[in-house]
Design goal:
Length: 448
């Protein structure tokens, strides 16, 4: 099924109407993918080298760098964590263009290749680019549609900075935007962005329940979609009506110090940067060839996790509708401040090597036992910086007679939405759960 055989609506605009069609088109493109990925030593990267500071960086000083980081765990005085981290100071743009077709909201999607994505291609937002890419530091083509995505004069529905994985990134954020286009604007932008399709927002949210279909950046944007679709721009001042237990946090941002990579005691630098006990992840060099993107070939380091992670969000029905069991944590990359996460979130689904990890696994399993229904999806994480990074997401809906009166922090969907629209406080894992929850609500699996 090619572009010419998919649905056509409203003066020739190309539309994908169902989850099945979206899945089929994505698989078709994966089957035709010609990109090749070669694992190479870090010393073989043409544009990357170790700097005088002891960091792995691009010759231009742009894109990102891999640094050594040292952090004292606030919940365990005296426990010092050291590891390589990805330091990406540049703020990228993630944008979904939306329009109204026959009275229904549609989003403009693309099918994007990333070198670290296990299946090569996933469904992506209209515009997804780092600042270095859209400023063509690589010397390649410009990113289509980026001028509109960055425009100050468009009809912006939501615009927020959002955090990414703080176990691997040092305070990385991207700008997430949803921009509403009128009929003429939507026709022009579809022609501007190659191989783009209009898909109902309800279908995109339902597709977050599929395994490895919607990429992380699009899930992040979709998490901000208001279910009532009133679509009025959110005033930042309204955030302060949210749960005061969270906003009045006593936790401080991570006091993480940068150190040379060769000073990390449990890590060794050779052809790759690896943990001595083969735990957590490695930093590996890759060369990419044969893919038509801004540039046709390049090389870069990628973070390669040892195993799949797991994130479980407990849900219950409260007086204000659906409520979520969340917590606030400071991780090694939380240099912007504490982050709101699901109560149960582990970077390694099978890591039982410490007492803390074993207690965490048992607590997660005990909580899920009380769920009437558990919804599960295997999702891929950031494919432009990680290789093969995946996480099992579980949403467990507690029964009426479960232990839902426990003295933890429950927040309503409405409160979480306000915080999410404000930005810069929810973890990417919680935002993925939020997008999946909205998909479950729109498909009728969970009622408000």
């Amino acid at each position: 099924m090619g572009r010419e055989t998919l649905g056509i609506s409203r003066a020739g605009m190309c539309v994908i109407s169902t989850v099945a069609e979206l899945h089929s088109e994505c698989h078709r493109r994966r089957a035709q993918l010609k990109a090749q990925l070669f694992r190479i030593p870090l010393s073989g990267l043409h544009q990357w080298s170790i700097t005088e500071e002891g960091f792995l960086a691009h010759r231009t000083g742009r894109f990102f760098r891999v640094v050594g980081a040292r952090f004292e765990e606030p919940s365990t005085p005296g426990l010092v964590i050291e590891r390589p981290m990805i330091d990406q100071a540049e703020i990228g743009i993630l944008c979904l263009f939306v329009t109204v077709i026959n009275g229904q909201y549609y989003g403009l999607i693309t099918f994007k290749f990333e070198p670290g994505t296990p299946d090569g291609i996933e469904v992506a937002p209209s515009v997804q680019a780092t600042r270095s890419n859209y400023q063509t530091v690589h010397g390649g083509m410009r990113v289509p549609g980026v001028e509109i995505a960055l425009s100050k004069t468009v009809n912006t529905l939501v615009d927020a900075l959002q955090r990414e994985q703080e176990e691997w990134f040092l305070g990385k954020v991207n700008r997430n935007r949803i921009i509403l286009l009128d009929e003429n604007e939507s026709k022009k932008v579809e022609m501007l962005i190659p191989d783009s399709y209009w898909v109902p927002i309800s279908v995109l949210l339902a597709s977050t329940l599929q395994h490895r279909l919607i990429n992380m950046d699009l899930r992040s944007i979709l998490s901000m979609w208001p279910l009532d679709t009133t679509l009025t721009p959110i005033a930042s001042s309204s955030v302060y009506s949210a749960n005061t237990n969270i906003k009045n946090s006593k936790l401080k941002k991570a006091n993480t110090k940068l150190v040379p990579l060769n000073s990390l005691e449990e890590w060794k630098i050779g052809e790759y940067i690896e943990h001595q006990a083969q735990q957590l992840f490695s930093i590996v060099g890759y060369r990419v060839e044969g893919q038509k993107r801004e540039t046709q070939f390049w090389d870069q380091p990628l973070l390669v996790p040892v195993r799949v992670g797991q994130c479980s969000l407990l849900l219950r029905k409260g007086k204000e509708g659906i409520e979520m069991l969340i917590t606030e944590r400071v991780r090694i990359g939380s240099v912007r401040g504490p982050t709101i996460e699901p109560m149960h979130q582990r970077g390694d689904i099978a890591d039982y090597t410490t007492a803390t990890h074993r207690v965490s696994m048992l607590a997660e399993a005990a909580d899920l036992v009380y769920s009437n229904k558990i919804y599960t999806a295997l999702q891929t994480e950031e494919g432009g910086r990680f290789h093969g990074a995946m996480m099992v997401y579980q949403l467990g809906l507690l029964g009426a007679y479960s232990r839902n009166e426990r003295a933890d922090c429950w927040m309503s969907l409405a409160e979480i939405d306000i915080l999410n629209w404000h930005g810069d406080c929810l973890s990417i894992e919680l935002r993925t759960c939020l997008a999946m929850l909205k998909g479950l609500i729109l498909t009728g699996n969970i009622t408000l």
